[in-house]
Model the fold of this input.
Amino acid sequence: MRQKKNATTLLTYIALMIGSVIMIFPFVWMLLTSFKTNAEVMQIPPTILPANWDFSSFSKVVDLLPFGNLYLNTALMIFLRVVCAVVFCSMAGYAFAKLNFKGKNILFTLIIVQQMIPGQIFIIPQYQMIAKLGMTDTIFSLVFPGVVSAFGTFFLRQAYMGIPDEVAEAAYLDGCTRWQTFTKMMFPLTKSSVAALSVFTAVFAYTDLMWPLVANTNINSTTLSAGLSSLNGQFSTNYPVLMAGSLLAMLPMVVLYLCFQKHFIEGVAMTGGK
Done:
């Protein structure tokens, strides 16, 4: 019995190691490619290590793209989307979890249904709204799709449902209004869930490619992901430059993960997301 358990543990570790290698390999390949020449990248059979470590790709990509604007636009988009998600999803989640009002179940069903619909379907109507407002190529246009999040509303609703009703009842007895009960009693109890939602919202905003390409066509007003896509040529692509740009673009999220990895892991455990 013990030998069987040890064998199962060994197989589990082997499977995890193989999975880790598969997940890490693309990052390592990107890192090595950024130091190669374009001739080495096109070489067959491919070489793993560069013959001569070439740093010129980093200077080239900095000259090609306005990284200062791209970093700023991406940071503002992430910050504002996180603020909107926390504020509006917290209030909506609390209302659906603890308040009773007409049409509550119907409205929540619509939110669940929205999560089942591909986000690309909303791009055309959202762009028409932004275009009629004359807000294309602005920070507002980048933030607009993330003002309210169906996922965030559902996520925080589940967090509020885990809080006993006696907490709110005690606050009412002490003379608190519903707003005071929410802001002073209930919201502070969901700090861990709010932090997890913030991290996930930041990741989703950072990886958003389609919307910035549609709403912000000016290279100086778009995001890192959309800016990097401009490095793809119609007939050929300078992959070392592209990989160098990707490496520079991913640095903010690496720092974010290192700072908030505890909340990120908690969010994965609570939602099953990634």
Observations:
- Residues 4 and 42 are 48 Å apart (CA to CA).
- The chain has a mean pLDDT of 84.
- Residues 65-230 form a domain with the MetI-like fold fold (CATH 1.10.3720.10).
- The chain has 14 helices and no strands.
